[in-house]
Amino acid sequence: MKLQTGKSLLHGTIEVPGDKSISHRSIMFGALANGETRIRHFLRADDCLSTIQAFRDLGVQIEETPDEIIVHGVGFGGLKPSKAPINVGNSGTTIRLMMGILAAQPFATTLFGDSSIAKRPMNRVMLPLKEMGANMTGHEGSEFAPIAINRAEKLHGITYHMPVASAQVKSAIIFAALQAEGETMIHEKEKTRDHTEEMIQKFGGNIEVDGLTIRVSGNQAFQGQSLTVPGDISSAAFFIVAGLIAEDSEIVLKNVGLNPTRTGIIDVVKAMGGDISVVEDDLAGTITVKTSRLTGTTISGDLIPRLIDELPIIALLATQAEGETIIRDAEELKVKETNRIDAVATELAKMGADITPTADGLIIRGKTKLRGAKVTSYGDHRIGMMLQIAALLVQDGEVELEKADAVSVSYPSFFDDVRSLFDE
Ligand code: S3P
Known about the structure:
By secondary structure, the chain is of the alpha/beta class. The protein has twelve helices and 23 strands. It has helices at 20-32, 46-57, 92-103, 123-131, 167-177, 195-202, 233-245, 264-271, 311-319, 340-350, 381-392, 414-423, and strands at 11-15, 33-40, 61-64, 68-74, 86-87, 109-112, 135-137, 147-150, 159-161, 183-187, 208-210, 213-217, 222-223, 226-228, 250-257, 275-280, 284-290, 298-299, 323-327, 354-358, 361-366, 373-376, 399-402. Strands 2, 3, 4, 13 and 14 form a five-stranded mixed sheet that branches. Strands 1-15-17-16 form a four-stranded mixed sheet, with helices on one face. A four-stranded mixed sheet has the order 5-6-8-7. Strand 20 (354-358) and strand 21 (361-366) form a beta hairpin. Helix 1 runs parallel beside helix 6, helix 3 (92-103) packs parallel to helix 5 (167-177) and helix 7 packs parallel to helix 9 (311-319). The longest helix has 13 residues, at 20-32. It is globular, with a radius of gyration of 21 Å. 53% of the residues are buried. Shikimate-3-phosphate is lined by residues 21, 93, 166-168, 171, 192-193, 308-309, 332.
């Protein structure tokens, strides 16, 4: 696909689609609750549709109307065996959280996905679940999908010190713990997104969080709820950066979720001298960005989980900042939809960026002029979207993006929303 290039004067207001992490969990909790759950502003993108299909395969009735998704919850005891292996597509959240849900069920299930899913590490989820009594295995005894989950005896609670900062791992353990005998105690390495914990409370369950320690007891039951999913800050991130780096621009982003475990990008933009304002209401807020003079910064430590999905677009931002930006402690980027350290470094270097991959991050020196090139998303939605924003700055030459359709994993209307900023 030929990308839009050479754009300044980006102006407009965008309401980004619903949060991906919250949309997945709303279906999961809705299915596992008793009674009806109604979800507004659900993200109808490939990843979350995979979660809907997974629960339909498990016998849950889910209706899609223009305004909402209606899940007819069956309770933890009401799931039915799937007639065929369940396809999670490209969705790491679906496969890992479903492993926790299904580990405790009295029937067998196989989970598989696309070629990216088949390369992603699953021991991080399988090992703690096995400690709880789960019986599961990866392809030919490896840790990789397809994952065969066999019926287990009743699971039991454990105390677990997480070796990685991962909300997917934490959530998988929590879903198993909710169905186990006794209490589970999880110690996080660093604080990660807490949507699962929040949703347990919303659906009438109990969970105790004290700093990095989480306690959750088994044999819980939930009640269906009505909820509205806030806009995804990880989708807003592409336009936050576009507004800061395109000449003479101002972009307003409405209804963006501002859960503090997700707002690391706002802190980074401020540290780099970006003109960003945030007006909060209850659940969400309005973010306004304007073209800015930026300086490099260092991004590391416990900030990383608060912006892990935004690092590709933050790397682009750094190419337009004066001086050096150092991203470290981000080795998790290597095991996302693609190896995002290599993908970002390779593709932005093709466009003229001064960027060096390191063992746990990137070093970017700015400010550089970007030029036309033939680039690829590697089938990774966030790499594809970052490259379109980069292309907006290109004055000389064309940018041809391979595998552009990957954006539908989290943001099907992305290219339309980009165009709305200069068509108005
Ligand atoms: C997610 C957690 C993150 C993130 C992913 C969604 C979630 O993964 O990268 O896009 O919804 O829990 P990790 O928790 O494995 O870092």
